[in-house]
Amino acid sequence: MQIQVLTESISSKNRPYVQPAACAISARNRRFNGKVGSTLDMMGAAMSFSRNGEIYGEGEAADYIYKVESGAVRTYKLLDDGRRQISAFYLPGDVFGLEAASNHYFSAEAVTTSTVLVVRRSALVALAARQNDVANELWTLTASALGKVQNLMITLGRKNAQERVAAFLLEMSGRACDKHTIELPMSRQDIADYLGLTIETVSRTFTQLENDATIELPTSRRVVLRDRGALKRLNA
Amino acid sequence: MQIQVLTESISSKNRPYVQPAACAISARNRRFNGKVGSTLDMMGAAMSFSRNGEIYGEGEAADYIYKVESGAVRTYKLLDDGRRQISAFYLPGDVFGLEAASNHYFSAEAVTTSTVLVVRRSALVALAARQNDVANELWTLTASALGKVQNLMITLGRKNAQERVAAFLLEMSGRACDKHTIELPMSRQDIADYLGLTIETVSRTFTQLENDATIELPTSRRVVLRDRGALKRLNA
DNA sequence: CGACGACTTGACGTGTTTCAAACGAGGTGG
DNA sequence: CCACCTCGTTTGAAACACGTCAAGTCGTCG
């Protein structure tokens, strides 16, 4: 990992994504939910990353485990011709980087300006060796990451564009403070690279859902779910 | 989008898939590789499943952990209209069913006649509570399952048919006893449902690779890799 | 106001799916 | 021993969903 402060090279002009107030509070509370969550809080050092800042790169030694405090993080892998697959988005309270392999299989970047708790893996493993419940929680966290990826796998393997976007919206809604109105921290390109589509197809699907009165799009980054039932039906 | 009905009847007349002799030996040896591997062997009871036999169903309580002794196993999930996504194939030596959630997210079936070691999860967890190395190995196994799914996810999200089939062949080759000649235990339909394609596309891609002199197909279930470099290039 | 980046929309091309038919290896029965 | 059936697989032709390329819109900021 590299300790980096100023990755945000270029345009700082875009207004930074602001975590909605209600979510910020819920994120603070989440700090002390769960065994390892709080353990991480005790052991960790907070770091800040600006938009698109690299948190770690593919192939680097996996010496740390991370927990999002604020903002949003994406993990992804690039094929050699530039195709990108995003494997997950992490929001406040989420832990990432705990694949037990010695090196990272993905890269991680801040989607928006973010603060991340960083904990030495070795310290956590040492603690887990003595405290059985910590070991158990590490396992559970990994298993839940597995579950999320398996779910995405089904979306990528067997769903069409509408179904993929519906799945994405329901997933984001499940994590939002206001289940009805979603603030998207990520761009259309991010969504496309998450869902295995192109940016154009994602955009078209959004407007299609809007025309069907399934969602509303007050702005491109704000989605109002008007007909959750329709989305669930699409979610197969 | 594809609506596919599983037509394979349980009926039995097809000659059972026979594990090649060399592989069978290697499987026996694998019995005592690795800490948990051997622990499982000590604690487990062997069970036999016939072709297409169900090992567990989606939603069932996840009370057991499994290890393939002989044969092959697939885990999969069905969408409500019959679309199927296979999440993994397990060959002799592989451990599966260790998602820590209390209920199975997938179903598991024997691809061919198989014997599987079955171990009570609670017993293993209890042992892990006392033996730190067992807990560690459980975590590692889950993390390696995570890695495999992440890899499949990239295939499903960002690769075309040729690249998917190439990835599949290289993966199977990596597990085969004879790296040059692969015996496929699974049908074209299984491969299609693993790679997020249709059976016709898989078949066409196989013949295309054969025409390109990248592979040979002495029989539909036997694949000879003639140009591994070409496959690796396709693997992006 | 003008420039820039993110997003949307349009027209067209294409890879994969769909639907349909033929093939071929194994097993069965006459 | 050969005709015949079955089931997995292959092949063909046509349809379609998504990708590609290109232009246009919108909101933000200098």
Describe the structure.
2 copies of one chain form a homodimer. Chain A is of the alpha+beta class and 236 residues long. Chain A is 42% helix and 22% strand. Chain A has 8 helices and 11 strands. Chain A has a 4-stranded antiparallel beta sheet with strand order 1-8-3-6. The longest helix of chain A is centred in the middle third of the chain and has 27 residues, at 132-158. The A-B interface holds A 77, 79-81, 83-85, 87, 98-101, 105-106, 125, 128-129, 132, 135-136, 138-140, 142-147, 149-150, 152-154, 156-160, 163, 193, 195-196, 236 and B 1-2, 77, 79-81, 83-85, 87, 98-101, 105-106, 125, 128-129, 132, 135-136, 138-140, 142-147, 149-150, 152-154, 156-159, 193, 195-196, 236. Chain B binds a DNA duplex (30 and 30 nucleotides) through helix 7.
The side-by-side strand order for the widest beta sheet of chain A comes to 1-8-3-6
Report the sheet with the most strands of chain A, covering strand number, pairing sense and barrel closure.
4 strands, antiparallel
- Please name the two chains that share the biggest interface, counting residues whose Cβ lies under 8 Å from a Cβ on the partner chain: A-B, 44 and 44 residues
Helix content of chain A: 40-55%
Q: What is the subunit organization of this protein?
A: homodimer
End-to-end span of chain A in angstroms?
Answer: 40 Å
Anisotropy-based shape of chain A: globular
Number of helices of chain A: 8
